[in-house]
């Protein structure tokens, strides 16, 4: 007579694996639109002196959204993409009540 071997019960999926996969997927999808925003001169931007913050490109023609306090006292900022490209952005609007500002990138290409 043959012995019947039952398959081992599979363990339930690890919720952290699913969460990690979701985070990685989100970063791959939106990561190119996330930028670092530096205020001050070019030298300050390279060394993160002056002010700094983050933003996200929200339109195909390069408008980005950031917090008002990041660009509160400036008319332009240096924006750096995750791939290292850097462009000059001009503050195009402010909404202090919503604590939001938007800017338009003027040099080079936006996110791809």
Could you tell me the CATH topology label of the domain at 34-105.
Thrombin, subunit H
- Class of the domain at 34-105, according to the CATH hierarchy? Mainly Beta
Sequence stretches where pLDDT stays below 50 over 5 or more residues: none
Principal-axes geometry comes out as elongated
Tally of helical segments: 2
- CATH 2nd-level architecture of the domain at 34-105: Beta Barrel
Question: What is the residue-mean pLDDT, rounded to a whole number?
Answer: 80
Strand order of the largest sheet: 1-2-3-6-5-4
* SSE topology string: HEHEEEEE
- The gyration radius over C-alpha positions equals 22 Å
The CATH homologous superfamily name of the domain at 34-105 equals Trypsin-like serine proteases
Judged by helices, strands and strand pairing, the structural class is: alpha+beta
Number of E-type strands = 6
Give the helix level as a range of percent.
10-25%
- Largest sheet, described in full? 6 strands, antiparallel, barrel
